[in-house]
Amino acid sequence: MKLYIAEKPSLGRAIAAALPKPHKNHKTHIEVSNGDMVSWCIGHILEQVEPDAYDEKYKKWQLEHLPIIPEEWQLKPKYKTRSQLAALRKLVKQASSIVHAGDPDREGQLLVDEVISYLKVPATKRDGMQRLLISDLNLPAVKRALNQLQSNKAFMPLSISALARSRADWLYGMNMTRAYTIQGKKAGYQGVLSVGRVQTPILGLVVRRDLEIEHFVSKPFYEVLAHLQTEQTEQTEQNEGFRAKWQPSEACLPHMDEEGRVINKRLAENVVGRISNQPAFVSDINAKQKKQNAPLPYNLSALQIDAAKAFGLNAKMVLDVCQGLYERHKVITYPRSDCRYLPKEQFSQAKSITNMLAGTSFDFAEHAKNADTSIKSHAWNDSKVSAHHAIIPTEKNPQNCQFSKAEQQVYQLIVRQYLAQFYPAHLYLQTKVTVNIANGLFTANAKQIEQQGWKQLFKSARSSLTTKPGEDELSNQTLPKLVKGQTLHCSHGELLEKNTQPPAHFTDATLLAAMTGIARFVTDKDIKKILKDTDGLGTEATRAGIIELLFKRGFLVRNGKKIQATETGRGLIKALPEQATKPDMTAQWEASLNDMSEQKVSYLNFMQPLTQTINQLIEFASANIPQGLQGLTAPGKPAYKKRRRSKKSA
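Now predict its structure.
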């Protein structure tokens, strides 16, 4: 008997639907006509034991017990899913072979592997295990996956990496939380001070941004624009005008800030006076044709960021919506993906998917009709795809799905990103003109679109997703036909007085972007070099939960779209050593975990330095009392007020 073990019941039912009928449906498994069985976990059905399972003395939180580092790690069945584990125990014993059908990611790999290990499945049976990778729950896709089984051994590095991540989180979070909760009580704070390997550096980012904004002092700076006109000729019935921006020379450096902005108003005013009503000469024209390829299909983080920008949906909501689109409606592929590429084999389905989309009544139908499925964008790249691929629409028609508003919004984002792969590149001519006026240099830029290409899909009111930061009216103005050496006339100079702006508060979109591109916030240059383009804190599946956890624990609060730290959040960051509040250390750990999944780093090479670091952090905590938490009340615990005695009690 062959036993398929899925990650959850919905996936188990999808697998069974592709196997021989008739079926016998049981509470814990499905029996198919050839005698094979399909069963499932219900998420993680095992969990790390509490510290007191290793030693009774750990029930009491005491500094002298820390750090707690198990010699032999133990798991225990989750209470609510014990019956499912018992069913799996019986089925595993009966099975002659096992197919691992966890979700196609790191956690999905560990989730089933740890059950197999916990149930002490014999080595011979473990060695013969196969791996089934399903990213689309529709019947044709499941049947294709069943014909492409692989050896489960090939995926063990993913499992080891997920195991290391799980243990690292337990070691760091449990020890640091106990240490700072104990020390917090000494300062008068009565709540639990939760510290996490990923959550605390994220909180640190928000706290530092808030403080930077509070301490920001706005300073004026000055720009000069030259208003230029061409001379009237036989070919032009009237003068044509445009504006060019002053480019200060090296001689102006003493009057500029570190960002290269002029801070001396008199200098700028002098330039305005010098260039007004003066001849101008075109000293250089540089025109280049630029090509912009379609943006890659979404991974979860990129989708969460765009959904936050376009519709104000928070990360947790987008994840929940995606799970519904995947499991209930079956209209998108596996959503918890960190990959933005597609396997070449998937390209063969492009025509049927676009034809299906073209036949719907959704807004994107017209774009689907105009899609050219002979175009093969750089998204199809087998070398960039591991266990899972980018999130794309499936072949199932969404026409009769009862979508919520959020489901419709997210689905249309996914569809649009997919259809963009079948449109030509966006082509434009970028022209930069340099003009000399009274020995000063001025530049003007123009962008002339030659082919809209894929950008025609992004013309809606929400199309700010494709606009690059810094694109303004000056860079998008239309320039007259100019030639090098041409004489122009500067009618007048214009002084622009501006003020430096503080950085913006984090929002759902920008905080997620910070988590996925954490190298921007890493201060150590050597660690910056280590981090790859795919760097990030947490995983695609955990980032939304980490952000929400910080809100639940009272460390963060929403103020409109702004995300800000509470006084408790600030007090905790102030109490912790700097390395625990900055992303450098944990970003390096995340990079090592990625390397582990690619067999570049061993489990021991990761865990040994981590335990040494935890020892050092506990020493620091033991020597310092978090005075910044004095007078603060734990979230959810009202400040104590002395009850007034009633007349009756008196």
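Residues 174 and 599 are 28 Å apart (CA to CA).
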